[in-house]
Q: What sequence folds into this?
């Protein structure tokens, strides 16, 4: 009887593995059609998910997603221990059943990831949806926009008061939230519902991963590293809430976060966005023309330079092999999700801003 029950369990779990495999592949076939993803998922199904999850999970002041991740880690550790126990006692059938159970869990996680948010990686690009396709630019144009951004950052930094730099995180997050809501009223492409960021319970661990924030696709929560330099926090909050809008690729979330932040009146929020933009544009200029890069570097104010230094030193203080490994993992994760540039995708915000510059002639973005 026991042998028969084990055989039935193997058959059931085997069927579940095959069924989940087929469902996932059907989902990937759907993902190959960006227009369909946009119409039937990003602008319908995903928005319904947000209307359900956001108001419910916003009731909790802490990150439910962090707890879920913690629970998953505990369960996986338990499963590994049980697996080796079965192997040690030569209970091969039980070890096999447990392995199948883990496979089913992983497959279910992958399926839920794409159904709850991951399909947004496969919608038409923001460049298409926002009519920012002209991403070509000359070195002279790049220099001009970088100069304007540097000037804007210098001015914005001079207006940031000591009190601004000591604002509590809740105030910073709320002002970023208001900026996102304000942007959402300007276009259907920026529609959002009950956006919010939460301080991550895993902030200590995030420091060693080199992570300033992350979006939890299973709970639709935007998590913040609440210990990083204060002038980085407002923009990162806008970036993570841009993911809540359905902007998957990192450059797109950077771009939307930038638009929200510079459109705000808050001094620290505006400076945070300009600080990020200057860093991205200067990085691009360094690889484009080192002579111009050095000239532009001299234009950056001592205060802004000091902030760049403080940010660099903050992350260097947590630099470990864990950081390097997590970087490799996330680089490959992005490449597997329609972002072939990997981590370099973050810097592609420059292309979107340059396209916006050429279309608007600096009228609205700088």
A:
């Amino acid at each position: 009887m026991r042998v028969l029950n084990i055989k039935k369990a193997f058959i059931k779990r085997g069927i579940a593995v095959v069924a989940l495999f087929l469902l996932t592949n059907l989902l990937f076939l759907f993902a190959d059609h960006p227009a369909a993803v946009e119409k039937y998922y990003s602008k319908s199904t995903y928005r319904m998910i947000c209307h359900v999850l956001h108001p419910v999970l916003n009731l909790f002041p802490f990150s439910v997603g962090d707890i879920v991740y913690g629970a998953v880690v505990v369960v996986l550790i338990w499963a590994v221990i049980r697996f080796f126990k079965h192997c040690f006692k030569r209970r091969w059938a039980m070890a096999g059943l447990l392995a199948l159970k883990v496979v089913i869990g992983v497959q279910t996680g992958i399926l839920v990831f794409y159904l709850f948010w991951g399909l947004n990686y496969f919608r038409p690009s923001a460049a298409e949806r926002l009519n920012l396709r002209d991403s070509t630019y000359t070195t002279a144009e790049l220099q001009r926009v970088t100069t304007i951004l540097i000037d804007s950052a210098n001015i914005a930094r001079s207006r940031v008061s000591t009190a601004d730099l000591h604002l509590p995180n809740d105030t910073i997050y709320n002002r970023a939230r208001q900026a996102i809501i304000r942007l959402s009223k300007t276009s259907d492409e920026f529609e959002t519902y009950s956006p919010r960021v939460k301080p991550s319970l895993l902030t200590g661990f995030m420091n060693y991963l080199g992570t300033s924030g992350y979006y939890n696709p299973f709970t639709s929560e935007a998590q913040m590293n609440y210990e990083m330099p204060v002038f980085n926090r407002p923009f990162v909050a806008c970036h993570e809430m841009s993911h809540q809008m359905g902007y998957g690729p990192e450059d797109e979330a950077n771009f939307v976060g930038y638009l929200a932040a510079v459109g705000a009146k808050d001094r620290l929020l505006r400076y945070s966005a300009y600080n990020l933009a200057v860093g991205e544009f200067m990085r691009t200029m360094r690889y484009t023309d080192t002579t111009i890069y050095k000239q532009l570097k001299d234009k950056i104010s001592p205060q802004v330079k000091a902030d760049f230094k403080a940010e660099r030193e903050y992350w260097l203080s947590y630099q470990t092999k864990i950081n390097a490994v997590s970087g490799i993992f996330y680089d490959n994760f992005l490449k597997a999700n329609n972002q072939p540039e990997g981590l370099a995708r973050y810097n592609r915000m420059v292309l979107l801003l340059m396209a916006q510059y050429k279309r608007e002639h600096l009228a609205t973005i700088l």
Summary: DSSP finds 15 helices and three strands in the chain.
